[in-house]
Amino acid sequence: MNIILFGPPGAGKGTQGSKIVEKFNLHKVSTGDLLRDEIKNNTDIGNEIRSLMDEGSLISDNIINDLIIKVISNKKFYNRLIFDGYPRNLNQAMNLDSQIRKYKQKISCVLSLNVDKESIIKRISGRQTCINCGMVFNEHYYPASNKNHACDPKFLSKRTDDKKNTIQHRFETYLNKTLPILDYYKEQNLFHQINGIAEIDQIFEEICRILASLET
Description:
By secondary structure, the chain is an alpha/beta fold. The chain contains eight helices and eight strands. It has helices at residues 13-24, 31-40, 44-55, 61-72, 90-102, 117-125, 164-186, 200-215, and strands at residues 3-6, 27-30, 81-84, 109-114, 127-130, 136-138, 156-157, 191-195. Strands 2-3-1-4-8 form a five-stranded parallel β-sheet, with helices on both faces. It has a three-stranded antiparallel β-sheet with strand order 6-5-7. α2 (31-40) packs across α3 (44-55) and α4 (61-72) runs parallel beside α5. It is globular.
């Protein structure tokens, strides 16, 4: 099966994506990872990507689509893909459909983790990482204490982009860009909305029920 996973920043896509990969033996396709791999391997595309990033320019759909095609055309991953962070716009969604058909595969389902804006703000703005031991906490849901964290509280740090205004902007940008894509997949009867507020294991159980129904 091939799956597309959607969700706003902080919705838990990374957590659920990893669990899906492990249970269903899929290969995760992350555009960020693909871009970094090209740069690391010093390919021609990688050098072009590095130049664009150095200039602060956006990576074009053509480059992203070319990287996606390399994965889809790899027989090792035939009908075993989960897309995380792609497609990001309607043009990319239509390209994905075209390439999937070209290589005689199909999109089995589209999963969307639904989390409201206030919960996203709490999840992201409350994140704290210990720069000494690497443990991650949340001021609202899982605060650091002397019972669960041995390091001095001075080591707890927040990311500079985890501020409320920045998070709101990222959330609204996601909605504006993603809604047309979700409507596109709804028309194909591939779309499944999942309550992203539930506990991690409950969310994964719901995902497993959906994916199991596809295999029968």
